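Chapter review: from sequence to fold.
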Amino acid sequence: MTIAYHRPSSVADASGLAAAHSDGRLLAGGQSLLPAIRLGLSDPSDLIDLGRIPDLKGIREEAGSLRVGAMCTHAEVAASADVKRLIPALAQLAGHIGDRAVRNRGTLGGSLANNDPAACYPAAVLGLGATIHTNKRDIAGDDFFTGVYSTALEEGEVITSVSFPVPKAAGWQKFKQPASRFSIVGVFVSQGSQGVRVAVTGAAACVFRASAIEAALSANWSSAAAKAVHVDASELNSDLHASAAYRAHLIPVLAARAVGA
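The token string follows.
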């Protein structure tokens, strides 16, 4: 197997290469794509490395939001003084993704484009009502995640940054799989300009909002209110890590802990 390697210096060049090579793949941190190639689960004709595009880096405060470049690593998000000050729950989330090696290579944009059902960042995007910016358009977090490893991204579309609204309060808790450190269940809660939002990852085919817990917390922002909600297990995952019933039990427990935190 021969894979052509490209290192574009601009988003436009990267998008053009992606459009020209329909069997190619954009390469961010490579923490999911490269293992998939080694295992024969992915066979791209071309790899388009985004690592040297300056426009995809950087973290800055904007009016009421925090804008994070798509190629910012998990370690950079976790260490950012602005993230710690404005959305400490996001810094906490980033600081507990994978191990140190993964955090220093994996990126925000790569995680979102991959949309692993147990990834952490999708919960932050949905839980904060974030907006994903691409080279073509802005996509609301509610419209971005469409299924298992599936997103609203089109061919040649490159995530450039993500805008996270600064909440009044936010919290993150996850029950991790100890080897991979992915979420068996992870819950992100926030209270802000968009009301109460509760996002769950690891429990189903795709990240989703827990509307019953949102309603309970809208009426009473307390750990007790979150924990009292019953979650239906019928559409949740059941696998060697946890049954659907156990995941259903964990969701309100973790939501309560996130509110308490």
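Two observations follow directly from the output. The radius of gyration is 18 Å. Residues 244-260 form the longest helix (17 residues).
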